[in-house]
Predict the 3D structure of the following.
Amino acid sequence: MYPYPLLDLSSIHEQIARRLTADSLTLRDLPSPSAFRSMDRAVARISAAIDRGERIVLVGDYDVDGVMATAIVQQFFAAIDLPIEVHIPNRFTDGYGLSPSVLERIEHADVILTVDNGISALEAAEICRRRGIDLIITDHHIVPQTPPEAYAIVDQKHPECSFPYEEVCGAQIAWYLCAALNQKRDTHIDMKTYLDMVAIAIVADMMPLDHINRVMVRRGLEQFGRSEWPFARAYREANPKASYTAEDFGFSLAPMINSAGRLEDASIALSYVTAPNIYEARTALERLKHLNDERKRLEQEVTDAAVAQADPDAAVTVVYGEGWHEGVVGIVAARLVRRFGRPAIVLSQNGTVCKGSGRSWRECHLYDLLDRQRDRFLGFGGHKAAIGMSIEQKHLEDFVTALQKDAQQECRDVDEYDPDILGELPFVLIDHTLLRLLEQYEPYGQGNPRPKFITRNVTLAALQTMGKENNHLRFTFESDQRYLQGVQFKTTQTYPIGTRMDVIYTLNENHFRGQTTIQLMVEKVI
């Protein structure tokens, strides 16, 4: 195990301050919408369409970022009393983004606006051109060498774009578009009321929580706690807390929203986020809960099969199976990354085609690795941390061989060092003062991870299983005559009482029956 520094009272503040990101920006520091290439052109065209009474059609995407981006634009247009036609593709029948099949359902449009998609929609853009439709693309994904022909492309990754931050999500660009339209038309909509939707998308799409992402998530969390949106009220009612964190978005709310597009249709999620009253929001949320439970069951089935197939020595974990549910392969890839500590790609085979998702690990740029083999793919897209792809089964072996060779050279860890571990923490230093210090650096997430600690040679004083399937553990640890509780999720491992062990964990407060205790969220027992 890597020799992490021993933390003491004099060093712990310094270590935390040096390793974590504190707030430095405010909403006043957000760049102007005009910093986006073609934003002014896009807004002028939409404004002209409003003045002329032209038909505007919005096309979103089926993940959380796409649903939130769609909801922001839909709700903004409703607020200015200009309802628009909205389409979200179905993962299974339409595929990703603006496609010919989506266009078949649009009987008439003067302007089509995409959010969180469109930058790879070459065929659909050509159809729009032939039909005389002005296509406005807002997207945040990597721009291909030959982008689609469109009236305007608003994408911070465009080589001609001067927006100063590269890692922003689709919902942020949708918010910027509405903010610019709000300003141009002098409609006096309070754009801060949409920041909770933006924050959910930033967290769910794994954007780094620094620069403007950080302030938008922080303000979005504050907004969510008091938001009058029925979807937010329904969630708070079902999950009451004094305040909400990015982890609440990432591990609770976002998976429920995602489950609709993964298993059935994202329109279910959109109906929840845009519910006009609390009663409809409650009903939609209950349906999402059921879908999420089913998602968890399918995810566990695929995960078990994937783990059994995985090569523990590979530089990149690549697994595939006949009939694995396409809606959960991305989540399973993320679980394999956490389990094996390396990038993972999980594919569902349907006939002669394998389709699925990949997730990266630490500084490995998964998109760049796969982009070298773009010619092998039927479809490919994504960014550094996550990719989507499809490939004919006959090309899979050659793809994996080349991928492993490249990743072996570029992505293997030379030691077991975990940069998220701040140091070795004695139990005596774990108190509520330390937790208050850690709170100063929230929100935690991608790019600003919740700090982990390691405590060595602790004694296991008690152990019990939890959960319906007994696949969670509750520990009582003892070190230097100090006892602390810990929990570990999704594990069937067991340990004899009295075992001496090293524990890697994060810290949180457990609120139960009016009592507040410190709890170790165990990541790994060694």
